[in-house]
Write a structure and sequence with these properties.
This protein has 439 residues and is mostly helical. The protein has a single domain, classed as Up-down Bundle (Amino acid/polyamine transporter I). Helix 7 packs parallel to helix 16. It is globular, with a radius of gyration of 21 Å.
């Protein structure tokens, strides 16, 4: 009897959360514990800003330039907050996710290319995240990379199976992995001899020592807003409790905005901690460290096996959680654009193929991570522009349409990110546009 009651409680966790949220919306429940009911969508989306691609970029930034580029990480995080907030708002107000609205409002000759490009973006994202988790497992347990990939695939698939129980279990699982990443880096910054005064100064004082620093800044900001994170956040808020009236939607938006600020704020602090750790450990004598494997092997003699182990645990948690979210985003994209779902195991298998091919061909894993970011640069413009267009339209958003200030910030943010992505792509193909403009 006890076993069946326990299974029933587990099966209805999402239903219990929905019922409690409705109590809050009706004004019959309040307090700090009630606020926790609304935590979930932004936490899941925040994983995109702590994925293995960020590890590589942040390590390179800290190793080469010390604390100098911390302000870039701060700017990138503020832009991320804005766009994730808009995505969450779109799902709450309209009851539709971004992909569904694209299908409803754009002609088919636009929708089909958007769907194809968005699927490519989801696969490119999963390439980086899947590889990151596999690298962490392979280094931590001293197993071949292919074996690490197999374990990552099994664990990720296991996490995704919890989707069948509703939204709450997977929110809690991803939240636990985010907590692991955050805790690891909280410990790391106290193990590493961080110059806190210098770190604080460079967080708020912009500086670009040379053209290389400028290029790296372009990489940090230009690859910050992830296409799949924009799509999935609107789907996550859409799939929770709908606001049935004006007051309900305003309450949901208020909690959502706070969650975005806190969750993305934590993600930003984790990224800053990565830069600070790399700066403290590598900048003085190992400024050439760029690859994740090199960083791990260099950390061991410098800060000890504990610091190196924490680095791998955080990388592993990052890869597994972000790979699961990438697969969820792929489902949102497919269902929104073409109106149907495929089984999770098929989706997981399809997204596994590119990294398997990459590793089988002997391609350097870190180089593959970098190239995946370039692919994302090509695919980013469409969801960003679509999000801005929808949230500034009164016929779609009603009274929740963006204010003039929000519209201005969104347009400026879009222009900045797209311009930096363009520079990043040109740089990748050997066109030194920054030196051309300067000269």
């Amino acid at each position: 009897m006890f076993g069946s009651e326990l299974m029933s409680a587990r099966a209805t966790l999402s239903d219990q959360t929905v019922a409690a949220i409705r109590e809050v919306l009706a004004g019959r429940r309040s307090g700090a514990r009630s606020a926790l009911l609304f935590v979930g969508p932004a936490v899941i989306a925040s994983v995109a800003y702590m994925d293995p691609g960020n590890f590589a970029t942040n390590i390179q930034a800290g190793a080469q330039f010390g604390y100098t580029l911390l302000w870039v990480v701060l700017v990138a995080n503020v832009i991320a907050m804005l766009f994730q907030g808009l995505s969450a708002k779109l799902g709450i107000v309209t009851g539709r996710n971004l992909a569904e609205l694209c299908r409803e409002h754009f002609p088919s000759k636009v929708v089909i290319p958007m769907w194809i490009v968005s699927e490519v973006a989801a696969m490119a994202t999963d390439l980086a995240e899947f590889l990151g988790g596999a690298i962490g497992l392979a280094l931590l347990f001293k197993i071949p990379l292919l074996a690490g990939m197999a374990v990552t695939a099994i664990v990720t698939y296991g996490i995704l199976l919890f989707e069948s129980r509703g939204f709450r279990p997977i929110e809690l699982i991803i939240g636990a992995l985010v907590a692991v990443i955050s805790l690891c880096y909280l410990i790391e910054v106290f193990i590493a001899p961080v110059a806190w005064g210098e770190a604080a100064r460079h967080t708020f004082l912009p500086a670009l020592p040379n053209a290389e620093a400028l290029y790296l800044s372009v990489g940090i900001v230009g690859a910050t807003v992830m296409p799949h994170a924009i799509y999935v956040h609107s789907g996550l808020t859409q799939g929770r409790v709908p606001g049935t009236d004006r007051v309900g939607r305003r309450t949901l938006l208020r909690f959502s905005n706070w969650e975005v600020v806190i969750a993305l704020g934590i993600a930003g602090l984790v990224n800053m901690a990565m830069v600070m750790m790399a700066s403290a450990a590598f900048h003085a004598g190992h400024s050439d460290v760029q690859e994740i494997e090199t960083a791990y092997h260099t950390l061991t003699p410098l800060l000890g096996a504990g610091a190196a182990g924490l680095f791998l645990v955080s990388l592993m948690a990052s890869g597994i959680s972000s790979s699961a979210v990438g697969t969820m985003a792929g489902q949102v994209i497919m269902q929104g654009f073409v109106g149907f779902r495929i089984p999770i195991w098929v989706r997981r298998l399809v997204t596994m193929l590119p990294p398997l091919v990459v590793v089988s061909l002997g391609v350097n894993a870190t180089q593959a991570l970098v190239m995946s970011q370039v692919v994302l640069s090509f695919t980013l413009p469409m969801p960003m522009i679509a999000l801005v267009l929808f949230t500034l339209r009164r016929d779609i958003m009603g009274e929740f349409v963006n204010s003039r200030l929000t519209n201005l910030a969104a347009i400026v943010g879009t222009v900045v990110v797209l311009a930096l992505n363009t520079i990043l792509m040109l740089q990748t193909f050997g066109i030194d546009i920054l030196r051309f403009v300067a000269g």
